[in-house]
Amino acid sequence: MVRIAISSDNHLDVNQVDPRAALEMQAQYPLGRGVQYYFYAGDLFNDFTQTRQYMATLRERLADRVQVYYIAGNHDLLQHAPYTLTENLADPGYLHRHYVDLPGTNWRVIGNNGWYDYGFSAYRDDPSAVRQWKRVYWLDSEIDQPGDDQERMDTVLHQVATQLTAARDAGKRVLFLTHFAPGTNYWPHVRRRCGRPGRNVSTR
Q1: How do beta strands 98-101 and 173-177 pair?
Q2: Which of 44, 77, 151, 184 could cross-link with 120 by S-S, CB 3.0 to 4.6 Å?
């Protein structure tokens, strides 16, 4: 049996947590519970360089005992995260657009940072209104991307469809690791509270 652990959204800098202490805790948790694979689903720092360095140190700390993989969340993408880098980073632990097959099982873990097209918003059919709202309220407006949110989401959907098709063709069952919940059907406990952009609820 393969045992995995998944976590996300530590926000170490925002929460003023000592990274060295946090790393030691994150190393000891899987070691003490017989975990072979640890997946981190984004939002470690507000800086992709810090996230990469932290995860590299954690991978080195756990070495051959626990395999560590991560993807980026919107906070990780705020600084030092040009689009071309975050889409194409050659890092053995970075699971975006990659996958890992869990040995001795029929399971494949597929990673994609994801995105959202604001389809949960009442302004989902008015991209100009979404852009205006993002400029005023939403930190994601600082994230580097070559097109608008709809175009980025289309790219994500194509990437994911390609990987899911490959998994199906390989006869694999899938665990999908992503950071974003792009529709209200993924978080029904706040669905009724979502309306106009200024009133939308973020789960992050």
Answers
A1: unpaired
A2: 184
